[in-house]
């Protein structure tokens, strides 16, 4: 991972340099199958207006409404998961946004990730930042080897 922000008021961010095409990287965020490969078992619709729900076993589920799903930018908003038990941090995450900016870089892609609203002021900061570091590494591993380390593996 190239960079992570951790100042008191700053959103969680990470920058990854991936040996994959921008189209391959975008596909990781625009379908349930793609998200399942790096984050965890996911169902739903990755198109704009759709909702993706990722299950974390006994910890519950996260639901993300898709606000943007283009080839160079994907944005999700955290919403309450319908019909499933939310994760313990869902209340703090409600209304936060996950932004994935996908930029061609050399023979690969620079992924700029920002979780807008996830700051050190939240009670879940330590656990959530640790989890994002794990899942950012999962994206890197997936891009490098074809196999990520999503929840449950």
Let me know the average pLDDT: 93
Helix content: 10-25%
**Strand residue content:** 25-35%
Write the H/E string, N to C.
EEHHEEEEHEEH
Distance between the termini: 21 Å
Whole-angstrom Rg:
14 Å
Number of helices: 4
Structural class: alpha+beta
**Widest sheet, order of strands:** 1-2-8-7-6-5-4-3
| Low-pLDDT residue intervals, each spanning 5 or more residues | none
Q: Profile the largest sheet.
A: 8 strands, antiparallel
Specify the overall morphology: globular
- Count every beta strand, where a strand is a DSSP E run of 2 or more residues: 8
Draw up the topology in text.
Layout: E1 3-4, E2 12-18, H1 22-27, H2 32-36, E3 42-44, E4 51-55, E5 61-69, E6 73-79, H3 90-93, E7 97-105, E8 108-116, H4 125-145
Antiparallel strand pairs: 1-2, 2-8, 3-4, 4-5, 5-6, 6-7, 7-8
């Amino acid at each position: 991972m190239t960079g992570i922000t951790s100042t008191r008021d700053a959103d969680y961010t990470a920058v990854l340099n991936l040996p994959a095409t921008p189209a391959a990287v975008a596909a990781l965020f625009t379908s349930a199958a793609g998200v399942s490969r790096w984050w965890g078992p996911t169902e739903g619709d990755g198109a704009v207006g759709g909702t993706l729900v990722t299950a974390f076993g006994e910890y519950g589920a996260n639901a993300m409404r898709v606000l943007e799903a283009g080839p160079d930018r994907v944005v999700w908003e955290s919403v309450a998961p319908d019909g499933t038990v939310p994760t313990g941090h869902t209340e703090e995450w409600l209304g936060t946004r996950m932004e994935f900016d996908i930029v061609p870089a050399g023979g690969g892609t620079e992924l700029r990730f920002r979780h807008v609203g996830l700051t050190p002021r939240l009670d879940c900061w330590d656990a959530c930042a640790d989890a994002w570091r794990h899942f950012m590494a999962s994206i890197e591993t997936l891009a490098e080897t074809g196999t990520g380390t999503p929840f449950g593996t």
